[in-house]
Amino acid sequence: MATAWTFHKGIRTIGGTVIEIDVDGHRLIFDMGRGFEPGSVIFDHELKPRGIRDLRRLGVAPAVDGIFAGDGTRDDRPTMIAVSHMHLDHMGFIPYLRADVPVLMSEDSHRLLQALDAVHDGPRTPLDIRAVAVDSLTSWGPFTIECVAVDHDCPGTTAFFITAGDLRFVYSADLRQHGKHPDYTLDFARRAHDFKPDVLFIEGTRADSEDNDHTIAETDLAQRIGDAARSTKAGVYVLFYPRHPERVDSFRAAAASSERELVLQPAHAYIYAQFGGNLTGVSLYSADLAAARPELQAWVARSGLPSVSPEDLRGSEHRFIVDMTYPRMVDFVDIEPAAGGIFLHCNGTPLGPYDPNWNNLMHWLQTFQLDFTYVGSTGHGSRTDILSLVTTIAPRVLMPIHSKSPERIGLTTVPRLMPAYGRVYTKADIDDAKCPTEADLQPLAD
Ligand SMILES: [Zn+2]
Ligand SMILES: [Zn+2]
Q: Which-ligand-closest: CA of 85?
């Protein structure tokens, strides 16, 4: 049977991309994430999905038969899932997978998944995880798959080089060149070029950001946060995404340069420790630890790290940089932040104004007179970065994904196919693909 591929989810949205490649009755599907589209909320905190059947019926989960436990569907073809990284928009549906469906991921992705399980934010369901070393080749049925590291704000993120029958595919995952490992992304592109892909699936999250003029590099964060902390004698709070433990290094450096102590949420400290993080001089935020998972409580007890409670912070905020989460902001009632305090948004949730919780965040900060500043570093390359990778890779055909403006991702010298639902793509589509014109690269009017 000829190689064919289809798109189940994630066209013209950020994340949630689910692509299936079929060869000889075998299916390889990547990724398995949940797109975040708060503008079209179908479930909420009252109207909750009971399980995967509800999520499928409402079009939230991908309509792929025979992979989810208990959805009543069947498909006996051998199927493997591959997951590029542990962001929810790439792995959010893996808790619903059947226990006998193999899930390929990098060893660091698996490490993060296990850490999330220990702190109550992981799938906690039996899964057939196949954790593989970066750069190793996995042969499965008619496929070979190589996980290749890229720079992203999540440990273990890998692109995939896939040989499927007589066609070769490269899937970029999410990537950037302004993190601490730009060499990963540049090496990926050079090796992808040598792989000679027939099809390149590449992300275009920032298709509307031409360059990085307004982007903070990951390596500049420690300085910026340290500067902010030295600018006030009051409290400093940071909101970050714990699935990016490397960022804690920047908080530690900022704390050292501003002669403050870093206070981490216990769950975040645990994840950081699983990736070799240095917790010397770090304290743990002690509110509500009794509600934590037993594994986490035991780790906290073993760690011997000092604890700092909201009551300890009251009147002493100038001594600390505090890792704060959105739900824990209720503790501001007990802390009573002193005037002049600052709240640094370092890519935690809520991520931005499109999130319904964003207005609430702003309201709480106003109530407690904390000054909001964004000091984060995006996990995604600019349009120019992405196009330079496409130039280097020079695929036979480009298929832009993971973007609100995928038509902006393209070059007039590289044939392009715009992904569409309900289409089965084959080698003939590659042969027929045309290079876009300049006009084709303009954003579509809403
Ligand atoms: Zn993503
Ligand atoms: Zn990501």
A: 2
Distance 397 CA to ligand 1 centre (A): 21
d(C-alpha 374, C-alpha 370), whole Å: 13
Residues 232 and 135 in one domain: no
Asked if residue 399 and residue 366 are part of one domain, the reply reads no
Rounded Cα distance between 96 and 431, Å, is 37
- pTM of the full predicted structure? 0.96
Query: 315: alpha, beta or left, given left = phi > 0 and alpha = psi -120 to 50?
Result: left
If asked whether residues 125 and 49 sit together in one domain, one would say: yes
Each residue's pLDDT tens digit, 104-150: 999 999 999 999 999 987 777 899 999 999 999 999 999 999 999 99
Q: Which domain holds residue 326?
A: 218-374
Ligand 2: centre distance to CA 157 (Å): 8
CA–centroid distance, residue 153 to ligand 2 (Å): 7
| 28-53: pLDDT as tens digits | 999 999 987 766 678 888 999 999 99
Residue 123 sits in the same domain as residue 254: no
Q: Do residue 261 and residue 393 come from a single domain?
A: no
End residue of a domain, out of 374, 401, 417: 374
Please name which of 394, 353, 393, 389 lies closest in space to residue 372, comparing C-alpha atoms.
353
- 383 Cα: distance to centroid of ligand 2 (angstroms): 16
Whole-number Å distance, alpha carbon 14 to ligand 2 midpoint, is 9
